[in-house]
Amino acid sequence: MSAASQASALAPWAGPLAIALSYLVGSLSFAVIISRLMGLADPRSYGSGNPGATNVLRSGNKAAALLTLAFDVLKGYLPVMAALLWQERLGLGPFAIALVGLSAFLGHLWPVYFRFQGGKGVATAAGVLLALNPVLGAATLASWLLIAVFFRYSSLASLVAAAFAPFFQLLIWGVKPAMLCIVPMSLLLVWRHGPNIRKLLAGTESKIGQKAGRKA
User: Is 210 contained in some domain?
Assistant: First the structure.
């Protein structure tokens, strides 16, 4: 069977298959995986208990935190880019591609390999946005960096970026299929930061790079 015939036969299943595979990729909790490989404590056992780069940084190992950040971004970026590159051959429309991005993000939040106990998804959401729209992704990251540099709170920076992403999309590009991914990600990011919002209001939130204590 030729490659064209194989692609044609796969086309009806391409969307669901891409979405499912994206979820499985998103379910790879690199904060846990990298910590285990580098002989560090499980990030779910200290600090905020969140398996993400910011909490891994609280271990004091900057290399582990940077690796976690890079891989968490990539697991959002690569599934969407693969869907974009193969969209014509497999007949993937813009709505399917948006769902691929959302699925990778949901995998990070509720990873099948880790008893559905995942992180908040900030880095993975950034990877998804960079793949869907590099300009939107860069603008959202700039918002995060601006708040993080001035206030030193990763959670506050994430909340601001989550609010600005759909705003930027609507203001510059209007209502597009990508909103099917962007809006749920933003809402879920705010929801996952509920405990951080309460700590910010109480003045007890940890700053970026602060050493870890026992799980909060």
Answer: no
| Token digits of residue 154 | 């990763």
Residue-range definition of the domain harbouring residue 95:
3-202
Q: What pLDDT digit, counting tens, does each position of 54-95 carry?
A: 889 888 889 999 999 999 999 999 999 999 999 998 889 999
Inside any domain, residue 208: no
Q: Token digits for 110?
A: 């509720």
Q: Is the dihedral of CA 78, 84, 87, 89 positive or negative?
A: negative
**Spatial distance between the Cα atoms of 197 and 118, rounded to a whole number of angstroms:** 19
Its sign, for the CA torsion 41, 42, 47, 53, is positive
**CB under 8 Å, gap of 24 or more: what pairs does 7-13 form?**
7/89, 7/90, 10/90, 11/90, 11/91
Cα–Cα distance, 216 to 169 (Å, whole number): 35
